[in-house]
Fold:
Amino acid sequence: MNPSQLGAKQGVMMSKFEIGGHTYKVNEVTLEKNDEGKSLLGMHDVKTNTILVDEGMTHSRKVETFMHEVIHVIYANTGCDHDERAIDALSNGLLQLGVADFLWKKVKK
Ligand SMILES: [Zn+2]
Structure:
């Protein structure tokens, strides 16, 4: 699946980084609304090792969304069930602790 199949328009290519031994590409793009008309802030694809973050958000929302998608990938890599509220709690907590910004800067270098 490529970014256009994920409902994304062209975006900024960012550096790659590793999650659980897998090299992930992270792109800031304009994400389209999904079939239910809901605006997507971010998404990930474990087949192509891609994380997409909507470029129209403020910096803190981008970083929190990026952290959210990274946590999704960690769960997917380990075959764990996904709970959106738990992932939101973790991503917001890690944003407040500065972990999300640390990872974002690591990806953008
Ligand atoms: Zn999610």
User: Anything to note?
Assistant: The chain has a mean pLDDT of 88.
